[in-house]
Specification:
globular, binds flavin mononucleotide, 6 helices, Pnp Oxidase, Chain A
Length: 214
């Protein structure tokens, strides 16, 4: 292995995590840690890896931005026709992973995804900068395009088309909400003996907590 890569190593020493420290509900625990990530000025604390499964059962992962925690679900927005959109159509089971290096913390969320309402997607779409609204029309996300000029031409065409008007939300664009059934909080500790607290859903909104070996 490349020696310079093999030598990258971080010792985690800042904090600890115990069963007695955490909230009974994992989403409340997430909200506390998320606020701490904001306070610590973690760059893009809402960036999370979204893992999906294809119709054939193979995994794929990419970063998306968390846009809200609503009624104990994790909400993000994307193109429903994208690769991830098609994969979630076939398999609504997904995983989300957050890594906040400045706090030496990871959060893992596993759950089932559903689309948010058209009204909610439309409301959020119109809160985005106008250039991002145009971008949603311009990009046939995940499809092959010949070169960059395809995007430039489409951008110009949509800017002309919607000049002076409210831009409608594309019908293929909107939000997903992940309803968790398993969540894990990981706090880095010295000697790779990290703290891990796992929550599993054991009944209606009843969560069971246990410690896992690192
Ligand atoms: C920091 C960051 C934030 C991103 N946020 C989003 C997002 O909120 N929604 C989205 O569709 N893609 C987002 N992307 C792009 C995705 O990672 C990905 O390239 C795109 O959604 C296409 O993925 P797919 O082909 O697997 O569907 C983001 C990428 C990065 C690096």
């Amino acid at each position: 292995m490349d020696k310079s890569i093999a030598h990258i190593r971080q010792e985690y020493t800042q904090r600890t995590l115990d069963l007695g420290d955490v909230h009974p509900h994992p989403v409340q625990q997430f909200q506390q840690w998320f606020q701490e990530a904001i306070d610590a000025q973690v760059p893009e604390p809402n960036a999370m890896t979204l893992s999906t499964i294809s119709a054939e059962g193979t995994p794929s992962a990419r970063i998306v931005l968390l846009k809200g925690v609503e009624e104990h679900t994790f909400v993000f927005y994307t193109n429903y026709q994208s690769r991830k959109g098609q994969e979630m159509e076939a398999h609504p089971q997904v995983a989300l992973t957050f890594f906040w290096p400045a706090l030496e913390r990871q959060v893992r969320v596993e759950g089932t995804v559903h689309k948010v309402s058209e009204a909610q997607s439309t409301h959020y779409f119109h809160s985005r900068p106008r250039s991002s609204q145009i971008g949603a029309w311009v990009s046939p996300q995940s499809q092959k395009i010949e070169d960059r000029s395809v995007l430039d031409q489409r951008q110009e065409a949509f800017e002309k088309k919607f000049a002076g008007q409210t831009i409608p939300k594309p019908p293929y664009w909107g939000g997903y909400a992940v309803q968790p059934h398993r969540m894990e909080f990981w706090q880095g500790r010295p000697s790779r003996l990290h703290d891990r607290i796992l929550y599993t859903l054991s009944g209606h909104n009843q969560w069971h907590r246990e410690r896992l070996a690192p």
